[in-house]
Design brief:
Shape: globular
Number of helices: 2
Number of strands: 4
Radius of gyration: 14 Å
Strand content: 25-35%
Structural class: alpha+beta
CATH class: Alpha Beta
Helix content: 25-40%
Order of helices and strands: EHEEHE
Oligomer: single chain
Distance between the termini: 16 Å
Length: about 100
Amino acid sequence: MPYAFIHDVPANEEMYREIRALLPDSNPPGLISHVAIVREDGLRYVDVWATEADWIRFRDECVGPALGRVRAEHGMTNDEWLATHEEVEVIDVWQLGS
């Protein structure tokens, strides 16, 4: 069963683009879908991964270092980066071409 989550972060589009530029150009193994949405108080990511292990590996190897670098460049501490993470149950994934 796929692993999915909703992640709300106190970032803006500029910060998102800076983080994204530090990530690999190719799709990470296991990523099914990633959607970044603008919200009043930041951004919301909705991700679907083949497995939770795929997400954790990508988070630890790629997202974490990129996020740390961009946060530091913007002078943000961990306390200021109050993100929420909610796992959600997937009942269907409909992809183009599949």
